[in-house]
UniProtKB/TrEMBL annotation, chain A:
CDD domains: HypE
PurM-like N-terminal domain location: 52-165
PurM-like C-terminal domain span: 178-321
Source organism per UniProt: Pseudovibrio axinellae
Organism superkingdom: Bacteria
Pfam families referenced in this protein's UniProt entry, alphabetically: AIRS, AIRS_C
Name by which UniProt lists this protein: Hydrogenase expression/formation protein HypE
Family from the record: Belongs to the HypE family.
Automatic annotation (TrEMBL), chain B:
Source taxon at top rank: Bacteria
Single GO BP term: protein maturation
Similarity remark: Belongs to the HypD family.
Protein name per its UniProtKB record: Hydrogenase maturation factor
Record flagged with keyword Transferase: no
């Protein structure tokens, strides 16, 4: 049993009986040392991290190496189906997976706000450890800074991920080709509505849980089946709508999507209807778009459905107009699916 | 999803579209009054299903769009005060005033909160007695009951730190103004379903009689709108001009009388300035004398200031159905949802924003 397990689910509350983060926890002295040892190393324990060096010295496997970085700011820190810790791990390992890379190592930097309860930090760190275990990655180095009260939202986290590509495919937008099929790996919009529901105190009749999850095992299954994956991208901020527009622009091709084929849970759809939000623009944290040749799409869908029964084919790629995404509406007419403007603001009535 | 999918059924919508095509013998111009209807029409591409003879023009029923610039400027001024928590419906936040908008006030440190109901603003006031909490009470008859309830409750609770910046507008006087205009082209109306849920349908009878226009109270889903158009065209072709109710599942002729009683207690009718249109007599609500102490304009002693619209923006004409968004040279060029010149480009219900977002061709 490692140290983290011995603490069970609650904070060790060591740290010289300090219940809250103080500026001194980022000041490089004894308090910071305690924080690192008794919270971070305790939770993330592994040989590289225990080395305690200024950086992590890694043995990378053969093949190409992929590096990605992402910062996480979310209010509230905890929401149904996850918290900022699960997001910080899954967000970065998913970016690696979308490059076709097996996630191996993560760095983790924290910006903490003075006054943050250490119990809260402990819960987040525990979530990170569980998510890292589930994704099969090690957190090998990190950093901690503390900002004055009022200058942060409790916790900001940056994670950088390193992964390796041990196959010959180049999974990237330029590989997308006319005639390809567009698939989505599950129902969309859960994360955004779960966070909005919690943040705004909206009482939905059924609780909406975030879809926050690691995606590598699904991608790995597609790769192991020998499918010629052209492109993958996870639908995070801006939702499916942003991903489709970004990829259509990057590939200089047209995407034609059928709105009725996009899987959405009734509670998510209901919440979006009530708030006047377009579910296609609502964030996911555990869903991705896969684009591959049409003749491989049936097998790909079968593999995706084995992981998530709501996976679906939602459209295809054509060469009509570079960078355009069209949507067939539920009543059968066609329109442009435009890039979202930015902040999602509910309508008045 | 129940009560949604039935009204978006492709076969039924097509049948209604065909029925309209069989009915129509000559061109007709029909205005849908409400921004929610405009949004649906453009989002679902309903105009494409209609015969060429039917032209839909988009009415002034977007509350975000018609809130005058000087009122947005007042909101920005109040929201900038350090002791104020300013609460607003989400889509008012990006509406451009003459120099700034509310999101920029927030970026500079103002305490702005997007609320889903004005009652949340009352709760915020109760929880923050050291702060002045102001709610931006905009909207048509639809939002008025909840806004009135917020003021009513604040008075009942004796809250001294709650006030409202009221910019309420009324649909029938705006329809009257459109019909009285020498430039008017509208021959029939789809009246705003949810406005009538509150106020009922009686106010429209005299409009239909006086101006000899058919008025069909209509819902918001594709099938509602097509059925509303069908009923309107049937009247136009018959030469009749009465008030009909397509949206029977939500609208009763008398409306919601309890809500009306509350509105009458809290508000009084006044002339109101509409963005892009100008002042329309008896077209708005302000707080009644009994509730005037909750008026943010009085509490913060705001001066009236002359404001000007962007010269390039045609939103006033768009709101009156005299121009279509694409007629504006700025549309999609210098005016986009990211950088709106006028309010019709801001709200999802604004005709320009709906046209831009759901357009069929790219703007060059």
């Amino acid at each position: 049993m490692n140290r983290a397990d011995s603490f069970g689910g609650s904070c060790p509350v060591p740290l010289g009986d300090q219940p809250c983060i103080k500026l001194a926890h980022g000041g490089g002295g004894r308090l910071m040392q305690q924080l690192i040892e008794e919270v971070f190393i305790a939770a993330f324990d592994n040989a590289v991290l225990r080395g305690g060096h200024d950086g992590a010295i890694l043995d990378l496997q053969n093949g190409r190496t992929v590096v990605t970085t992402d910062s996480f700011v979310v209010r509230p820190l905890f929401f149904p189906g996850g918290d900022i810790g699960t997001l910080a791990i899954n967000g970065t390992v998913n970016d690696l997976a979308m490059c076709g890379a097996k996630p191996l190592f993560l760095t983790s930097s924290f910006i903490l706000e003075e006054g943050l309860e250490i119990e809260t930090l402990w819960r987040v760190v525990q979530s990170m450890r569980k998510a890292a275990d589930a994704a099969g990655v090690l957190i090998v180095t990190g950093d901690t800074k503390v900002v004055e009260r009022g200058h942060g939202d409790g916790i900001y986290i940056n994670t950088t991920g390193i992964g390796c590509v041990d196959h010959s495919l180049f999974v990237s937008p330029p590989r997308i080709a006319t005639g390809d099929t567009i698939l989505v790996s599950g129902d969309i919009g859960r994360h955004g509505m779960a966070v909005m529901g919690t943040r705004e105190g909206l009482a939905f009749t059924t609780q909406i849980e975030s879809d926050c999850a690691p995606l590598w095992s699904t991608v790995e299954a597609l790769l192991e089946a020998g499918l010629e994956i052209h492109c993958l991208r996870d639908a995070t901020r801006g939702g499916l709508c942003s991903v489709l527009n970004e990829l259509a622009q990057d590939a200089s091709l047209q995407f034609d999507v059928v709105e009725n084929d996009v899987p959405v849970m009734p509670n998510v759809r209901g919440a979006c209807e009530v708030l006047g939000l377009d579910v296609l623009q609502v964030a996911c944290e555990g869903r991705f778009v896969a684009i591959l040749p049409k003749n491989e799409s049936v097998l790909a869908l079968e593999i995706l459905k084995a992981q998530n029964e709501f996976a679906a084919m939602i459209g295809h790629v054509s060469s009509a107009q570079a960078g355009l995404v069209t949507l067939q509406t539920p009543i059968g007419s066609q329109r442009i699916l435009d890039m979202p403007a930015g902040e999602l603001l509910p309508r008045i009535c | 999803m129940k009560y949604i999918d039935e009204y978006r059924d492709p076969q039924s919508t097509r049948k209604y579209a065909e029925a309209i095509a069989q009915l129509v013998t000559r061109p007709w111009t029909i205005m849908e009054v409400c921004g929610g209807q405009t949004h649906s029409i453009v989002r679902f591409g309903i105009q494409d299903l209609l015969p060429d003879e039917i032209e839909l023009v988009h009415g002034p029923g977007c509350p975000v769009c018609v809130t005058p610039v000087d009122m947005v400027d007042k909101a920005i001024e109040i929201a900038s005060y350090s002791d104020v928590i300013f609460c607003s419906f989400g889509d008012m936040m990006r509406v451009p005033g003459s120099k700034s908008d509310l999101t920029r006030v927030r970026a500079r440190g103002g305490d702005l909160r997007a609320v889903y109901t004005p009652l949340d603003a009352v709760k915020i006031a109760a929880a923050n007695p050291q702060k002045q909490v102001v709610f931006f009470a905009v909207g048509f008859e639809t939002t008025a009951p909840a806004n009135a309830m917020a003021v009513y409750l604040a008075k009942k609770q004796g809250l001294k730190n709650f006030s409202v910046l009221v910019s309420h507008v009324l649909v029938p006087p705006a329809m009257k103004a459109i019909l009285s205009s020498p430039d008017n082209t509208v021959q029939g109306f789809l009246a705003a379903g949810h406005v009538c849920t509150v106020m009922g349908t009686h106010a429209y009878t005299s409009l239909a009689d006086t101006y000899h226009v058919p008025i069909v109270v209509t819902g918001f889903e594709p099938l509602d709108i097509l059925q509303g158009i069908y009923m309107c065209v049937r009247q136009l072709e018959d030469g009749s001009a009465t008030v009909e109710n397509q949206y029977e599942r939500a609208v009763q002729d008398d409306g919601n009388t309890q809500a009306q009683d509350l509105i009458e207690k809290v508000f009084r009718v006044i002339p109101r300035k509409w963005r892009g249109i100008g002042t329309i007599p008896e077209s708005g609500w302000a707080l009644s004398d009994e509730y005037s102490s909750f008026d943010a304009q009085q509490r913060f002693k705001l001066a009236e200031a002359a404001t000007e619209e962007h010269t390039e923006c045609l939103s006033g004409k768009v709101l009156q159905g005299l121009k279509k968004p694409a007629d504006c040279p700025a549309f999609g060029v210098t005016c986009t949802p990211e950088n709106p010149l006028g309010a019709t480009m801001v709200s999802g219900e604004g005709a320009c924003a709906a046209y831009y977002r759901y357009r069929k061709e790219r703007v060059v």
